[in-house]
Amino acid sequence: MTLLRIRCARADDLPAIAGLMADCGRPQVRPQLPTLPGEHALVVEAGEGGAVLGCLRLRAAIGLQQPRYWYHVGCVVHAARELQLFQRQRTLLLGNNHTGASELADIAWARSGVPLAEQGLILKLLVQATLLLMARRREAFASHLVVELPGLRDAAGQAPFWLGLGRQFCRRDPLLAREQFGDEWRAHAAALLPRQTIYASFLPPGAQEAIAQAAPSARVLQDVLEAAGMRYSHHISIDDGGPVLEADVDTLGTVTAGRLWSLVQRDAAGPGVPMLVAHGDAGNWHAVMAQATLHGGRLALLPDDLARLGAHSGEQVWAAPLRSEFDAMPAVGGHSAPDA
């Protein structure tokens, strides 16, 4: 697993991406390469030319051409001291609060037969490589980043949240609608949903319990995203009630620690700091995990890691430690690590 490589998706990856989507419970998705400005698709492969183990789509700004909708999960209190009444109610309000944000979408990864720890590593590298790409081209992305996690579904693929709320206003099956219209189906559905505040207590128990709950199979993804600095934003998806995680991009560790380095080859294998090192630009972005040291203010990599990266001494790369402490990086020749 240490030889994993992250790169931009190609046309010949689409069948493998479709297989990953099906493995993650989304067989209706028909993957395509990015067509919109600022959109990037990345994959994780098991070494150069190996099997595709994960995929992700990065969108620079959402909701600017077709509105995107979420429910905001709020709270109201009804209180009357003279009646000894104090009642707190969860509320749902339809809105477009994340319009213009950047988004991590279409995240899928190999699950069948893959240990949970390896799934976590695949997702960790995929997410951090994407954040490093954002750091590399910071001006191309929004100040805010969001990701929708899949919500609870039953064995038949039905979402209790949708059955309890959305289906009362829109009879179309979400899975079939997504297959027919793609992600735009939610804008069509939202046109039929109430704009007034909804009390969650009016929903069936199953729908209430599904609010902001990620599917069990997505918990490893949630753990990876939260470790990267993303948090539940009190917003949920309108179809399955899954939680929306968000973050200010400039507070994310990989973005703040990512920086430009000059490369140098080191010949002696020894202790180093695990780093994600990326080479190329948006159309030819690829990254690997490598054990790095510092040598004369430059990033020193072993020959095998340089070869996997497709880079040479003297070239410049973007890199960030897989842990945040730059000062833990061993220096060669008495040079200390620069400030991140």
Automatic annotation (TrEMBL):
Native species: Niveibacterium umoris
Domain of life where this protein originates: Bacteria
Keywords from the UniProt entry: Acyltransferase, Arginine metabolism, Transferase
GO molecular function: arginine N-succinyltransferase activity
EC number: 2.3.1.109
Enzyme's top EC category: transferase
Keyword Transcription recorded: no
BP terms from Gene Ontology: L-arginine catabolic process
Name of the protein: Arginine N-succinyltransferase
Transmembrane regions listed in the UniProt entry: none
Keyword Acyltransferase annotated: yes
